[in-house]
Amino acid sequence: MGRDDDGRATTGPDHGRGRTRDGRRSFGPRRGRSAADPRRFLRSGRGMTASGGGKEMHVGVVFASARAVMKPPVPGEADFWNPPTRDARARDYVDENAREVIERGKRDANAGDCDDASETMTTHDEFGRVPAYLIEINRERAEEARRERETRAKNIAERRAAGRLREDERQTLIDRLRTEHAKLSASYQKLPFVVDTPNRRARKEAHELKLALIERDIETLNARTVFVDAS
């Protein structure tokens, strides 16, 4: 068993000197030793010098390479092109507009902007005529008004020709219709439930139609006022 530089026991002959038990070198320096010198540390501002109130990096050596591409230098103030400035007061647009209006002179208001267009509008074949679509619209309106007048006159004539049904007559008609409805209903109930022949189907449909007509007439006669055609 050996001792290292710090006085600690080691299990191998080279243990603590950068080697392991089987004789291979270990990682790093010897135990207790360091490759860095604590007296030689990186100081703040090393490699910088005060110049113009700031710090400037001193570049020692620049290695040239085939792949290195240098950027073009920043253009200076003299390299920029300054276009000449125009004086906005060199041209007076208000004065030019006023002169143009004065020189143009007065125009005839009825002539329009283009004399040729005005002559063409007044000389074509359709000038002064009613358009065809307006004629068609007026014809449809006149036909609709005629039909409405005829319907109104027909209703007035029918109302004048009709007379009010008396109460006893109305009640008599209702009783007769109810009696007829009861007879048809009894006959309808006697029809077979299964309709498997054309005659039975026709008989059933006829009974249903008569019952519906009688029910409609009874509903009409049950109104407060009933008018009948006296003619």
Description of the molecule:
- The chain is mainly alpha-helical and 231 residues long.
- Among the domains are: 36 residues; 67 residues, no CATH class.
- Helix content is 42%, strand content 8%.
- Strands 1-2 form a two-stranded antiparallel ribbon. It has a two-stranded antiparallel sheet with strand order 3-4. It has a two-stranded antiparallel ribbon with strand order 5-6.
- Helix 4 runs antiparallel to helix 5.
- It is flat.
- This is Enkurin-like domain.
- InterPro entries: Enkurin_dom, Enkurin_domain-protein.
- It is found in: Cell projection, Cilium; Cytoplasm, Cytoskeleton.
- GO terms for molecular function: calmodulin binding.
The poorly predicted ranges are 12-16, 52-56
| Molecular shape | flat
Order of helices and strands: EEEEHHHEHHE
Overall mean pLDDT stands at 75
Biggest sheet, strands in spatial order?
1-2
Report the sheet-strand fraction.
5-15%
What Rg do the Cα atoms give? Answer: 61 Å
Discrete helix count: 5
Helicity level: 40-55%
